[in-house]
Design brief:
It is a single chain. With 425 residues, the protein is of the alpha/beta class. 29% of the residues lie in helices and 23% in strands. It has 12 helices and 19 strands. The protein has helices at residues 86-102, 117-126, 159-172, 199-211, 223-232, 253-262, 286-291, 295-308, 328-338, 343-349, 352-358, 419-423; strands at residues 3-11, 20-28, 31-37, 49-52, 56-60, 62-67, 105-110, 134-137, 141-143, 153-155, 176-180, 215-222, 236-243, 266-267, 312-313, 375-379, 394-397, 400-404, 407-408. Strands 1, 2, 3, 4, 5, 16, 17, 18 and 19 form a 9-stranded mixed sheet that branches. A 5-stranded parallel sheet has the order 11-12-13-14-15, sandwiched between helices. A 3-stranded parallel sheet has the order 6-7-8, with helices on both faces. A hairpin with an 8-residue loop joins strand 1 and strand 2 (20-28). Helix 1 crosses helix 2 (117-126).
Amino acid sequence: MPTLAIRNVMLLDGTGDTARAGSSVHVTDGRIGWVGDASAEPQDVTVDRVIDGTGRTLLPGFIDSHVHLCADPERPGRYDPLRVSTERLAMEVLSHAQDALRAGVTTLADCGGRDYVTLDVRDAILAGSVLGPRIMTTGLGISITGGHFHWYSIEADDVAELRKATRTLVKRGVDFIKLFGTGGGSTMGSNPALAQYTVEEFRTVIEEAERGGIRVTTHVHGTPGIRNAVEAGIHRLEHVQFFDAEGDIRFDAELARQILDAGIPISLGMAKRWRTEQAIEGFLTPRQLQQRDLRDKRIQVLRNFREAGVKLVASTDAGMTMTPFDDLPYLMSFLTSEISMTIPEVVHSVTGRAATALGIDADHGTIEVGKLADLVLADGDVSAGLDPLFGELDVFRAGRRLVHRGRLTGPATRHATNATDREAP
């Protein structure tokens, strides 16, 4: 089988280990065939193609585990494109996904959109009909009647309705379930401080999802919703600000310890409004405007989590309130500067750790023998600073270069997409 050799790179393998200079990687049939020091490259392998990585850094493909592909970052968070046809929305979803791909994101986890449009785009990409990153999607979310993000959700108000909603989503072939466990800032009729579901209701969704072989994540801002989700055995948490009844943020150290002890990863879903000084007031709801004053407390929560050892997964909430789909490298840079994440740590948070949080770490997230060759090649030494990630990248998915120097490589072809990749989640 043809083998690609990427030689003499600075390697950040996504495991959290420090970078290794002078490394080489072999890719065969879409998977990593060998990794090691360039001087030890095996001589019994026929290399058909070589990329000289001198002066460049090789990383695993990035995973953004919280985006909304149907949303539009240039519009207010509550934007509901009901006036847009399903066909046009599908093209916009694809365009958003390709924006992420050019920024090094090879896997996107979509956390709630209109109808089941994201499933169609997901399947078209995996079939090789169009170019794009791998998409995992919840299709619709689940929320209470009139609750947060109800316009992109199945509305369910009790155990029976939650069971039916979860089974419906499993039937439609979603990759995971997104439950809206509290209100949110973009839905003025909801309350971010209060739980939308009880422990029993959370547990019902988890049990039905596990019956279907998939996981559950939940949007939670307020402490009561976080507590209910953790007690129910949630697989993943999103946001986790610890809002109280007065709308303030009060870190709960005991609840954080429970999250740590249970090994529950926290996907930050940290939209740009929480980390920018830009004037974006015209894109925020009145509640979001009030929450801007809590920015420093929100950042301190992240510092507290990191110091406690909680598994933090960097994710952008792209599509919401001026957060573009190519924003993940900028969030990574923010986390290194504001909460002192090291470069190997922040890379791990969007690669190996993110893959584990999504349950796809058998094939994704790190540059290790046997895993799919989802790769990012950046000019410069990323271990010395993240600036190279803002340049023109080469991006590979399952060994195929989909982006070359920041540009999509050309038309898709069904025969060019690796068969194993088509079968991946």
